[in-house]
Amino acid sequence: MVLDFFRSNRQSGLDEVQEILVRMLEDGHDVFVTACNALFGGGKSKETKREVRSTDKEINQAQRDVRRHLMVHAAVNNADLPLVLQYASIVKDAERVGDYAKNIYDLVKYGANFDEADDRENLETYRDAVAQLILDAATAFAEKDAEKAQHLIGKADGFLSGYDDRIQESYNSDGPASYAVARALYFRFLKRTTAHVMNVLTSLVQPLDRLDHYDEAPEDRI
Q1: How confident is the model at residue 212, as a pLDDT?
Q2: pTM of the predicted structure, to 2 decimals
Q3: How far is residue 222's CA from residue 209's CA, in Å, rounded to a whole number?
Q4: Which pLDDT does position 196 carry in this prediction?
C-alpha cells in the first residue's frame, strides 16, 4: 500500500494528520448533505447557512492544522518526506469537498428548489451516490484499505461521464433558463466533488507522481 510504504515500524508522527484528514472527509459529507437537504425542499435559512459556513470553516481550519503538522514533521523526519508530500497533495482535495457543498447551497440562495422537480428521482440518485462515496472514502482512508479504495475509484470514475451527459442535457433543455442553469451547476458541483474524493483515494493506490489527476478528463490524464 502506498501510504504504508514509507512508514517505519515506530509510531508515526503523521497519525494525527491521518485522523484529521478522515474527519475532513466526514465533515465534508455532513456539509454536503446539509446543502443538498436545503436544495431538495429544505430551502434557505439562517440556521442552514450558519451550519454550512461553520462546517466549511472547520474543514478549512483542519487543512491549516494538517499543513502545520506536515511542516514540523518534515523538519525533523526527512525520511518521511515522500509521505509528507502525499498528505500535502491530498489535503487540498479533502478541503474542496466543503467548498463545493457551499456552491450547492448557493444554488438555494439563488432560488433553486428541487423539491417538486419532475426529475427529482434522477437528481436524488446522483446526490445519494456522492454522499455515500464521501463516507466510503473516509472509511477506506481511515482503514488504509487499498483494495476498497481501488474499487471506489473505479465506481466513481463511471459517474463522471454521467455528470457530463446530464450537463449536456441541461444545456440543450427547452425549459426556462433557471431550470437548465440549476441542473448544469448542480451536476458540475457533483462532478468536482467526486473528482476530489477520487484524488484522495489515489493516495492509497498510486505513487506520489501519479496523485491528483482525477479532476482531469480521462483523455488528459497522464
Answers
A1: 56
A2: 0.83
A3: 10
A4: 94
User: How many helices, marked H, and strands, marked E, lie in the chain?
Assistant: 7, 0
- Written as one string, the DSSP assignment of 55-124 is HHHHHHHHHHHHHHHHHHHHHH-GGGHHHHHHHHHHHHHHHHHHHHHHHHHHHHHTT---TT-TTHHHHH
Confidence (pLDDT) at 15: 80
Domain locations along the chain: 9-220
Chain-centroid distance, C-alpha 171: 25
CA distance 40 to 149: 30
Is 9-220 in CATH node 3.40.50.2300?
Answer: no
Q: How many angstroms separate the Cα of 147 from the Cα of each of 2, 56, 141, 188? A: 12, 30, 11, 28
Q: Which residues of the chain fall short of a pLDDT of 50? A: 1-2, 5-11
